[in-house]
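Below is a filled-in request sheet from our internal design queue. Each sheet records the structural input a requester submitted and the sequence that came back. We keep these sheets so that new team members can see what a complete request looks like end to end.

REQUESTER: design group, bay 2
PRIORITY: normal
MODE: inverse folding
CHAIN LENGTH: 192
BACKBONE (tokenized):
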């Protein structure tokens, strides 16, 4: 069966992340992506994970503790647009799961301007062959505007330096998520 956007996002991460590398989860939420990334980088690597909700940090911390993955995770209670204050080394992969925390407060959502700021902060850090995966849930109020911002950002990246794809089911009801993946080419001449 064709993978869902969520499953495909994990495949795209697994294909490029190796033990010892640095990665980012820009929207920690319930910690599913943080857990995957922490397992992939191993105890010599580092996951920087961000969320604005204390609840997300608590749930994720417990999830990682059960799997003995806490050592390689830095859980940061701050907005992802400030990620440059914490991450300075090359990033092999990053994931954004946009929207609101499932079963959480639906008023706390990612926003177009700050999502773009976070992407702008991340792009210069992206390692050659590194990937930024963005899963856009856009059924909620304001979601379409964020999808539009993300699409424009991705579509505007120069072909010489980045491969960019989108992945979506086009015959499903209720606005299924759309996935974007930005891959920095090995031969990219300049960092943006
Ligand atoms: C769709 S959920 C993420 C789901 C998560 N990846 C998981 O595995 O459960 C989106 C998350 O983004 C968080 N968020 C919203 N705005 C944010 C911001 N500016 N910086 C960091 N996190 C933010 C929300 O609190 C919410 O937990």
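RETURNED SEQUENCE:
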């Amino acid at each position: 069966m064709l993978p869902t956007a969520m499953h495909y996002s994990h495949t795209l991460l697994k294909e490029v992340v190796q033990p010892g590398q640095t990665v980012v989860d820009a929207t920690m939420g319930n910690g599913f992506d943080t857990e995957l990334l922490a397992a992939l980088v191993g105890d010599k690597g580092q996951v920087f994970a961000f969320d604005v909700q204390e609840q997300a940090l608590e749930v994720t911390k417990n999830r990682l503790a059960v799997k003995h993955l806490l050592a390689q995770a830095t859980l940061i209670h701050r907005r992802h647009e400030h990620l440059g204050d914490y991450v300075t080394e090359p990033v092999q992969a990053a994931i954004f799961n946009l929207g609101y925390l499932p079963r959480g407060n639906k008023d706390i959502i990612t926003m177009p301007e700050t999502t773009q700021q976070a992407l702008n902060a991340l792009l210069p850090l992206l390692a050659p062959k590194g990937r930024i995966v963005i899963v856009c849930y856009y059924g909620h109020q304001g979601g379409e505007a964020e999808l539009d911002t993300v699409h424009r950002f991705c579509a505007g990246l120069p072909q010489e330096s980045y491969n960019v794809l989108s992945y979506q089911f086009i015959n499903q009801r209720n606005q299924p998520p759309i996935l974007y993946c930005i891959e920095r080419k090995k031969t990219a001449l300049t960092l943006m």
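SHEET NOTES:
- The chain has a mean pLDDT of 96.
- Strands lie at 22-25, 46-50, 73-76, 91-97, 126-136, 162-167, 178-184.
FILED BY: M.R.
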